[in-house]
Amino acid sequence: MIEIKKVAFKRGENQIFTSLSARIKPGEAVLLSGANGVGKTTLLQLIGGVLRVQSGEILINGRNVEDLSIKEQASIRSVAPQRRNFSLAYTVEQVIKFVPRKLKVENTDFIIDTLGLRTLLHKKVTELSGGEQERVSLALAFCQRADYYLLDEPFSAQDSKSIKDIIKVIKSLKKADKGVLVISHNQEALTQYFDREIKLS
């Protein structure tokens, strides 16, 4: 379980959280929503260990995220950022192989096929459209074996078919008793696919 306990975080003079508490359980998909600037991405970065809480604590499987090494964090949570910078001309297949074999899930073919990447495997990722690059970024996150998956705006550049395909992968993670936290600004159309919603304000 991910436990967010009375977390406070401030950027400069901007107090983003004062006492935020929430939980994400194994086997559930949670939608994280709220207006721009309320701290959705900041929260993902705190859970992912990129930022440090200023008070309170975040526990993952009973351990404080700040006590976990980078290697331990990688084995517990997988993150798909909102914009992954693909600046080098690797092929899609090479990008997916960035996940070390010992951390890779067994159903990579299912992920590649479901996200519509099979025909793109030998194309350079720098030559893909924004939506295709986003799905490659998601595949990279989904192919990493973890207990929790943190996805920042995974639907932003996708058409309706691709959104349903991504949700299909999320449902497969739920069935495998994984926890999924998804940021989306389009929550009204997506709420039906999630177990519950955390609204930041």
Please give a quick description of this structure.
This protein has helices at residues 40-47, 70-76, 92-96, 108-114, 130-142, 160-175, 187-190, and strands at 2-11, 14-24, 29-34, 55-60, 63-64, 77-80, 148-152, 179-183, 196-200. By secondary structure, it is α/β, with parallel strands linked by helices.
The description of the largest β-sheet is: 5 strands, parallel
- Report the CATH topology name: Rossmann fold
Q: What's the gyration radius in Å?
A: 16 Å
Please identify the top-level CATH class: Alpha Beta
CATH architecture: 3-Layer(aba) Sandwich
In which range does the helix fraction lie? 25-40%
> How far apart are the termini?
23 Å
Describe the structure.
The protein has 201 residues and is of the alpha/beta class. The chain has one domain (25-47, 77-200): 3-Layer(aba) Sandwich (Rossmann fold), CATH 3.40.50. The protein is 30% helix and 27% strand. The protein is built from seven helices and nine strands. It has helices spanning 40-47, 70-76, 92-96, 108-114, 130-142, 160-175, 187-190; strands spanning 2-11, 14-24, 29-34, 55-60, 63-64, 77-80, 148-152, 179-183, 196-200. The strands form two sheets. A five-stranded parallel β-sheet has the order 6-7-8-3-9, with helices on both faces. A four-stranded antiparallel β-sheet has the order 2-1-4-5, covered by helices on one side. The longest helix is centred in the last third of the chain and has 16 residues, at 160-175. The protein is globular. The mean pLDDT is 90.
